Amino acid sequence: DAPVVVAIDGPAGSGKSSVSKAVARRLGYRYLDTGAWYRALALHTLDADVDPEDSAAVIGSLDAFGGAFTVSLDPDVTAFTLGDRDVTDEIRGPRVTAVVSAVARVPEVRAWINETFRSLIANVDRPGIVVEGRDITTVVAPDAQARILLTASEAARMARRSAEFESHPAGDVAEQLQRRDRADSRVVDFMNAADGVTTVDSTHIDFDETVDAVVRVTESLT
Ligand code: C5P
Q1: How wide is the angle at C-alpha 153 spanned by C-alphas 152 and 157, nearest 5°?
Q2: Domain Cytidylate kinase spans what residues (predicted)?
């Protein structure tokens, strides 16, 4: 049998990353966090004094970024490096989050990154891989055996994000999350399930129940 691909999309604060990672662990799969790539590219441009709004300059930095960025597909080892620097925490920070949507909306950037994702997915061994992002079910891996949209009400997503960033005022976190979802939505639709995509709504269930639900959907489709 071919390796199983589980594609998971959803908005910020839906719990996508932690749920996807837990599902990968449970199933013994690899795990690809595609948002981390956009985040690392954003950091790479900031480090190189490239304006993230300058699409041509961002496109021009792709090859250097590709040569510098390394990522682990092991769900138990979250490690991203740029050159020899560990950027695992930095790519989640506010400086990167503020500019990531600008680099992610450039079509050439998406095409380049998606090619990389497709080759990573094509080279994965059995039993499979969980791939998580915004356009995985629709663009990156529309042929995935399991395609899931992970959603939660806006209120639930904001509450979870605010709890994650205890040191920041809840209002700031909520506003930034809304702004980022609005910007990202103009590029790909991750709020509505495409044909054949199963929605898992985590508004009223806890983390473990959400992981269970995603595993059940995956097992029913594979
Ligand atoms: O999922 P995460 O919040 O880490 O994603 C960071 C950013 O990367 C998103 O706000 C979006 O701009 C971009 N992204 C994307 N397509 C993906 C994954 C992430 O455009 N598949």
Answers
A1: 70
A2: 6-218
> Which residue's C-alpha comes closest to atom 4 of ligand 1?
35
Amino acid at site 175: E
Q: How many CA atoms lie within 13 A of 121 on its CB side?
A: 24
What tens digit of pLDDT does each residue of 86-125 get? 999 999 999 999 999 999 999 999 999 999 999 999 999 9
For ligand 1, atom 14, the nearest C-alpha belongs to: 35
Q: How far is the CA of 1 from the centre of ligand 1 (A)?
A: 31
Condensed to tens digits (0 to 9), the pLDDT of residues 188-197 reads 999 999 999 9
The 10s digit of each residue's pLDDT in 156-187 is 998 888 777 766 766 777 888 889 999 999 99
Is the CB of residue 5 below 6 angstroms from any atom belonging to ligand 1? Answer: no
Q: Would you say 151 and 13 are in contact if contact means Cβ atoms under 8 Å apart? A: no
**207-221 vs 16-27: helix axis angle to the nearest 10?**
60
Q: Does the interface ipTM go beyond 0.85?
A: yes
